[in-house]
Give the backbone structure.
Amino acid sequence: MTAVAHGHHDVLVVGGGAAGLMCALTAGQRGLRVAVVEHANRVGKKILMSGGGRCNFTNTGTSPANYLSANPHYCKSALARYTPWHFIEMVERHRIAWHEKELGQLFCDVSSKLIVKMLLDECDAAGVRIHTSCAIERVSLDDDGRYRLKTTHGDMSAPRLVVACGGLSIPSMGATGFGYELARRFGHEVLPTRAGLVPLTLSGKHLERMDGLSGVSLPVTAHSNGQSFTNAMLVTHRGISGPAILQISSYWQPGDALHLDLLPGEDALEWLQRQQAARPAAELQTVLSEAMPKRFAQRLCEVWLPGRASHRPMRQLDPAQLKAIAGIIGAWPLVASGTEGYRTAEVTLGGVDTDGLSSQTMESRRVPGLYFIGEVVDVTGWLGGYNFQWAWASGHAAGMAA
């Protein structure tokens, strides 16, 4: 990695994350002179930390339906032209062993460091220059159509500038709003941003009701705003987390209803009726304790279920009581107060408005030669490798066009 700028380039990429590196290597393979400018001391920091250090680098089930955007059609072109199988081909060419965990999620067998090394090796082979610990002091567009960057490594210029500096999630990794500032400076709308794929917090009596349950995990189906996800929920000291909660957090906002089905895959009333027929002498709390963690079942009975129903034998519960209990188990109401915010969020929702960008090339419709890719754009994927696939696809689209 070089620390010396050599002025003129064909393409300058601001940001050395997943999207920026993919764009750089793609453009470099076309014979263009490319430089990546990264303000942190190393590239690919979010790649390195993802998937518990194993990097959930794509999802084989990727489709436009797995993304949130004010324009749900925007991501279609890039995703269709660079699929998970294209990225898998590169991974296998570099002899990186991988496995499918669940729901199409692909992870490295060994370490996410191998993905970063692969991208850097591809960049190196394509002649891409990478500048780390390189702060940008000024960006300007000259009359001759060249973008000029004044950086701590010297001045650089190019007729094409790609903004790939991510969103606001995980500021401890170096996230800033620089990409949004650049977009606004060049006349682009930036849609309101908020934390996505993030734990939810509880407060007051809602948090008190969960006291002592931290660490308890169980499968649920989380419902909010017409969307639902089935996976694990984890009770934390401050609220709830786990894959199902992280997923629904991108659709939920403070004040919105949130319901959890505590028996995913089952009709709660039919399940209770079966239990009543099979085990008439067993108490409801005992039956529930065998279907979910005991501590959780006990608290559910203490706080949410009607009267003393949970300590009665199943045969004593009449149809109306069973229906009421089923209503709570199948749609357990949880009042969240907020989220853990950007500090722990995996992604940033919102960002550069896609109305101002070409879905084919990621180029600005307002300023020639300016491109926006990856998380800085108003395209946000679900949990499970979808955001990396958007990074690869949008980076490839810009790299082919720049």
Q: What stands out?
A: Residues 7-192+349-401 form a domain with the FAD/NAD(P)-binding domain fold (CATH 3.50.50.60). The longest helix spans residues 386-401.
